[in-house]
Structure formats: structure tokens, C-alpha cells
Design goal:
six-stranded mixed sheet; alpha/beta; Rossmann fold; Cytidine Deaminase, domain 2; 3 domains; 518 residues; 23 strands
Length: 518
């Protein structure tokens, strides 16, 4: 049986931090135990000004800080003090020969690279200067030698560390040192990943990395995942783009639906409302004002809208809010809430109200999905189609109102799970068929949805996210009265489908682009 690791008495500490929150309180606490404190640059100045006995690193290395501070701790007197295995007689002998005293505690956090690159119009050379070299080297050295060195990289840990030292007569347990080392390696890994991701952005747009480096901080724990037996958490900066103003905590499924709703809403410039259920739109409407837009979206599928998520792309006004308030909704998302709107909507304590601050069109994140043993990665589907890019393949060209309806339907179909069929007019959806294994079934379901909502499909446009493999899907649309079709084209049976359209006086355009969504 392995002998338990002994506690580590803290006698000597090196403190060098960019984030100086709580550092003087930590140093004062260490001084109570007679700990010798070594420091660098700005940290030394802060501690010295606070009246804390502290030595400069240059006193230990016998070498001044040079190159504008780029070199200050990269010295054997520092790294040997961090890396020495103190139960190895040879290591101890070498420390004695070179008059090096061990460093038992290392307190380091790194240059503010993330803060720097988050600023607008930051220059590459400014970002480069905030790439820490000596800090990560020390952190990794101390963490590797956690049996003999405690490493703290998080200001949150300062109070916990001092409390443990008070309970153990100035010592730190082996378990704590191990936990701190694990956190330290995660800290440097995240830091390096940020640098890697930032520099990768300067490569050509379509050049996916040979090595995928992902670094996200935990933004919040979630009660559970898609189902109660699955643990889950949110990572990254979602909470910077969507601020919760009111309501229950967000669930895993809420976050997925919020993202889906906002991404679809971002397709439209005119006042638009989107209703999402289980990651699929159940209604989309546009109008001169939001209340009109929402009414159109709701009429597509009132039954499915119950318990759904609504996103609007303009400031939410009181008239629209009163309409929203009549229906049970899990989440409402808006870029702004007009006066008195929050007073009304916060009366229901559980309903989540989200403030969207980001223009999602400008976010350039990759689409990453987990698979067994790895991940798939692709560029996000940001393609937008314009009338002059469409190819009319039938004898009859779409009329102006049909063209408007085709473009509306196409925007929505891009955000519907495949196989996707969307019936629409120029300002609203009429029927949506999502996620079927057969495209003809999606056509039938979309038509049934419109029928259930008492919406007339005569003269409507229909969008298919991928080509019709046979004419049957198109004929289902013709049967219910659609007069115009937009689809990618590219099937070996395109001529058969075009012929069916011509025989029924249907105008059809090809996009040359598909929008599969799995």
C-alpha cells in the first residue's frame, strides 16, 4: 500500500499576478505564518505599498528584469526551486550546491490575453504582447511538482488556502495540492487554446485547423440535460449574448431553442416573430409592426405554439407583449423591451425573459457536434439567397408575389430539421413539415398542419431544403394549391420533377444550394 503523502508546510511563496484582486489579503495572511514572499513588477509594487515584506525576483535570480519584462522569472533559481523533488537526496544536494531554496507556494495568474482580444479593433501586435511566457512556464513547473509545490491560479482559492493553512498550522494537504495542480493545468491549457484560436482566425476562412483546440469556461451548471438523468452545464459566452432578465433558470433544452429561434429571426430585417418548439419553427411571420408579425406566426400552428419560445427582432412593444401574455410561453427573446413591457411580462414568475445583445450574423463560431470518439466540425450555414441567384427551370416564371413568398419560405426551410417542407406567403408561414424520413411525408404533414390551422394553401409557395428525388413531393404541393416551388435541384430525376411542374402550371426555381439540417 502506498504511503499517504504528507502535508506541505508553506515557508516560501512566489506571487506574480495580473489580476490583483485579493492579493494583498492573501499576502498578509501568508505573512502571519512567517512565509517569505517573492514577487515581480507590478505585484511587488502593490505588496510593498501595502506594507508587506516582499523580495523582488531579481534578488533571487541575481539578474534584472529585461526586455520590457518579457524575461524575469525564466531562471534556474526559480524553476529549480519549483521543480525540485524534496525527497530525492540528489535534488536536495544540487539545491544546496547552488544555494537555491525551494518555493513551496506559487501564486500566478496570467497576462490578460482574453480581456485584450475582446476589445474592439485590437491590433495583432497588442494581442501578441499579452501572450504570457514566464507565467505558464512557472505554473506548469509547480503543478508538475505538486507533491512539493502548491500552485494557485484562481483568486477564489485564496481564502480557502488560508483557511486550510490555519487549520493545519501553516500546511497544505496532499489532496489540496493535487486539486490545485489539476486546476493549474486546466488554466494554462485554456490560455494556450485562446491564443491558438485567436491566431487561427487570421488564416483563410475555409482552412479548418489540423488540430482542433476548444476552450470554454463553464458559464453555469444546468439542473440536467435533455432528460433528468443526464448531467449538463453551459460553457462559453452564451450569457454575454443572451441576458436573462426574469424567470426560472434556463434548461439545456431552453438554451438550444433560444439559439434556434434567434438564428432564424436573424434572417429577417423587417419586423419578424419566430415561434420555436423542440428546435423547429412552428410559425414565422413578418409585418409592418411586431404585433402583426406575431399574429401571423401564431396562426401557423397555435396548438404547437403552447409552451414554445418566441423571438422577435425589434424592440418588444406593449401591444405585442399583451398578445404574448395570453399564451403560455417558456421563453421570450427580444433585443429591447419597451417601457411597461417588463412590468406586464414579469407578472408570470416562471416565464423566462431574455435580452439578446448580439447580432448573430456576425458571430463566426464553427458548428461542432459530438460523435463517438470525436467531433464533427463545419462552418455555420450562413448562406443567403437573392433573387438574381435563382434559376427558373419551368416554362412559367414566378410572379412578384410568388417570388417574395419563395424567398420567405426558403429562409425558414434553412432552419427546419430535414427533410423540410415549408408552405408560405410573402410574409408568413402556412405549414411546416419537419424531420421526416421521406420528403413526400414532409409535404403531406406541412399541408395537414395548414389544414388544421384553417389556412388556405391555394396560391402559396413551397420550399424544400433539398431536391425532390421524385415528382411525388411536388405533386403533393400541387394537390393542395401551391403554385410556386423553390428547391436546390440536382436530382437525377430533375427533368421528371420539372415536367410535373410544367404540366400543372407551377413556377419552379433552383437555388443550387441545399440546407440540410440534421
Amino acid at each position: 500500500m502506498r504511503t499517504p503523502e504528507p502535508e506541505l508546510k508553506i515557508r516560501r511563496a512566489l506571487i506574480s499576478v495580473s489580476d490583483k484582486r485579493g492579493i494583498t489579503d492573501l499576502a498578509k495572511g501568508l505573512a502571519e505564518f512567517g512565509v517569505e514572499i517573492i514577487s515581480t513588477g507590478g505585484t511587488y509594487a502593490a505588496l510593498n505599498e501595502a506594507g508587506i515584506a516582499v523580495k523582488q525576483v531579481s534578488e533571487i535570480t541575481g539578474f534584472p528584469e529585461i526586455l520590457d519584462g518579457r524575461v524575469k522569472t525564466l531562471h534556474p533559481n526559480i524553476h529549480a526551486a519549483l521543480l525540485a523533488v524534496l525527497d530525492n537526496p540528489k535534488h536536495v544536494q544540487q539545491l544546496n550546491e547552488h544555494q537555491i531554496s525551494p518555493i513551496d507556494l506559487l501564486v500566478v495568474n496570467l497576462y490578460p490575453f482574453e480581456e485584450t482580444i475582446s476589445k474592439e479593433n485590437v491590433r495583432l501586435e497588442d494581442a501578441i504582447e499579452q501572450i504570457d511566457i514566464g507565467g505558464p512556464a512557472m505554473v506548469r513547473a509547480g503543478a508538475k511538482n505538486y507533491r512539493h509545490t502548491a500552485v494557485v491560479v484562481n483568486p477564489y482559492r485564496y481564502g480557502i488556502l488560508l483557511e486550510e493553512m490555519r487549520e493545519h498550522n501553516g500546511a497544505v494537504s496532499a489532496q489540496t495540492r493535487f486539486d490545485l495542480a489539476s486546476e493549474a493545468f486546466a488554466h494554462t491549457a485554456q490560455y494556450d487554446a485562446l491564443v491558438s484560436s485567436y491566431l487561427a482566425a487570421f488564416k483563410p476562412q475555409h482552412d479548418l485547423p489540423e488540430k482542433l483546440v476548444i476552450s470554454y469556461r463553464k458559464a453555469m451548471p444546468l439542473r440536467y440535460g435533455e432528460n433528468p438523468h443526464q448531467s449538463a452545464a453551459l460553457y462559453g459566452e452564451f450569457d454575454k449574448h443572451f441576458q436573462k432578465l426574469h424567470g426560472k433558470e434556463l434548461s439545456f433544452n431552453n438554451i438550444l431553442d433560444i439559439n434556434a429561434a434567434a438564428m432564424l429571426c436573424a434572417e429577417f430585417d423587417e419586423p419578424t416573430a419566430v415561434i420555436i418548439k423542440h428546435n423547429n419553427p412552428c410559425g414565422v411571420g413578418s409585418g409592418d409592426i411586431l404585433s402583426q408579425a406575431y399574429q401571423k406566426a401564431l396562426e401557423t400552428d397555435k396548438k404547437s405554439a403552447f409552451g414554445g419560445i418566441v423571438c422577435v427582432n425589434k424592440p418588444l412593444d406593449l401591444a405585442t407583449a399583451e398578445m404574448l401574455n395570453e399564451l403560455f410561453l417558456e421563453v421570450i427573446i427580444a433585443p429591447e423591451y419597451m417601457p411597461r413591457v417588463l412590468d406586464l411580462l414579469t407578472r408570470k414568475k416562471d416565464r423566462r425573459l431574455m435580452l439578446q445583445s448580439a447580432n448573430l450574423r456576425k458571430l463566426n463560431d464553427y458548428d461542432i457536434r459530438a460523435v463517438a470518439g470525436g467531433v464533427l466540425m463545419q462552418e455555420p450555414d450562413k448562406h443567403r439567397i437573392y433573387p438574381d441567384q435563382l434559376k427558373t427551370v419551368t416554362k412559367r416564371k414566378p410572379m412578384d408575389d410568388e417570388m417574395q413568398a419563395l424567398l420567405f419560405a426558403w429562409k425558414v426551410a434553412k432552419h427546419v430539421k430535414s427533410n423540410a417542407i415549408v408552405y408560405a406567403r410573402g410574409d408568413r408561414t402556412l405549414g411546416i413539415g419537419a424531420g421526416q424520413m421521406s420528403r413526400v411525408d414532409s409535404s403531406r404533414i406541412a399541408a395537414l398542419k395548414a389544414q388544421d390551422a384553417d389556412l388556405d394553401l391555394r396560391g402559396s409557395a413551397v420550399a424544400s431544403d433539398a431536391f425532390f428525388p421524385f415528382a411525388d413531393g411536388l405533386l403533393e404541393a400541387v394537390k393542395v394549391g401551391a403554385t410556386a416551388v423553390i428547391q436546390p435541384g440536382g436530382s437525377v430525376r430533375d427533368e421528371e420533377v420539372i415536367k410535373a411542374a410544367d404540366e400543372n402550371n407551377v413556377a419552379m426555381v433552383f437555388t443550387g444550394i441545399r440546407h440540410f439540417r440534421h
